[in-house]
Each structure stands twice: as C-alpha cells, then as structure tokens.
Amino acid sequence: MRETVPKEFDFLREARLMRVIAARLKAAGIEGVIVPEPLMALSSQQLLVMQRMPGECTTRTLHFLRGKQDVEESMTSHFGYTPVAEV
Questions:
Q1: Which of 24, 29, 36, 82 is the most exposed, having the fewest neighbouring CB atoms within 10 Å of its CB?
Q2: At a CB cut-off of 8 Å and minimum separation 6, what does 36 contact?
Q3: What are the tens digits of pLDDT across the range 2-51?
Q4: Are 24 and 79 in contact (CB under 8 A)?
Q5: DSSP string across 14-47
Q6: CB within 8 A of 76, min separation 6: which ones?
Q7: What distance in Å separates the CA atoms of residue 80 and residue 20, rounded to the nearest whole number?
Q8: Cα gap 24→86, rounded to integer Å
C-alpha cells in the first residue's frame, strides 16, 4: 500500500495513464468510449484538470452491460485497469 497510495495521488501520472487508455481504445477500434483529454497546462502533481465530457461514467456503463458483474473485473479485462485495494 505504501507504494500504491502515492501513485494514486500523482495526478501527472494519472494524466499520462488517461492518454494511454485513450490510445488503447483507439488501437482496439473501440468506438463510443471517449476519454477526457487532460489539460496539462492547468494540471500539476497535486491537481488534474481535464476536458468536461457529457454522458455516463465508464464504470456505470460497464456494470450495466455486464449484467451487474464485478465492475473491477470488467475494467481489468477491457482496459488493463488494476484497481487499488480498499483500505
């Protein structure tokens, strides 16, 4: 946990990961999922500013599409997302 928590609060890292996820979705030909663009000029390690996007959040949509299966499992299988263990 000591290694994971600082990473979760490094918002420049999160911004880079947003761009990785967007690129993976595009490379996989997945349409209809839009990842907000991080606004790097306004962001810092302590603050992440991103493009405002209308619509449903990904986790809610995946939860619905998967028939209410485990959301974390859906995120992992689709996007390579690894959830952080709850405290």
A1: 29
A2: 18, 50, 51, 52, 53
A3: 777 777 788 999 999 999 999 999 999 988 888 999 999 999 989 999 99
A4: yes
A5: HHHHHHHHHHHHHHTT--S--PPPB-GGG-BTTB
A6: 82, 83
A7: 10
A8: 26
Closest among 32, 35, 31, 69 to 51, alpha carbons compared:
35
CA distances from 29 to 22, 23, 86 (A): 11, 10, 32
**Entry pTM:** 0.57
Residue 33, beta-bridge partner list: none
- Look at the block and give the residue holding tokens 């690894």: 82
Distance CA 45, CA 55 (A): 27
